[in-house]
Design brief:
mainly alpha
């Protein structure tokens, strides 16, 4: 994916209403994965987010979900939803064989955002 295409995609996800971000992520990654990234233990919380009845407890969690959608869309340019899920859960040498979902769920976004985007782009260029 070209730099311009990635920037356009980032702009789109950044501007998208949060309930739609959550719905798109649930469709791609599945409820349990989105709940993990959103910092909730119940997938029923996701339905409340989708309906706009509530939001994550922190802006950081919302930003993690937006980044997860950006990463998912990069990979979906070339692969299926199943492959997107596999990439999120697979060992990744960029992260000392930790799974991207664990890195995204636990590390500082400022520190890992570029590396995650780079890893997703590298995956689709293989």
């Amino acid at each position: 994916m070209s730099g311009a295409a990635v920037r356009a995609q980032v702009d789109q996800v950044t501007a998208e209403e949060f309930p739609k971000v959550v719905q798109r992520l649930v469709d791609i990654l599945g409820g349990p994965n989105v709940a993990y990234l959103g910092g909730v233990t119940r997938t029923s919380a996701l339905a409340e987010w989708i309906r706009g009845e509530r939001a994550p407890k922190s802006e950081d969690r919302e930003n993690r979900l937006r980044l997860a959608l950006q990463l998912s869309l990069i990979i979906k340019e070339r692969f299926s939803d199943k492959s997107v899920r596999a990439w999120f859960w697979g060992a990744n040498r960029r992260f000392e064989d930790n799974a991207p979902i664990a890195i995204l769920g636990t590390q500082s976004l400022i520190k890992v955002q570029s590396a995650l985007i780079g890893a997703a782009n590298e995956f689709v260029s293989l």
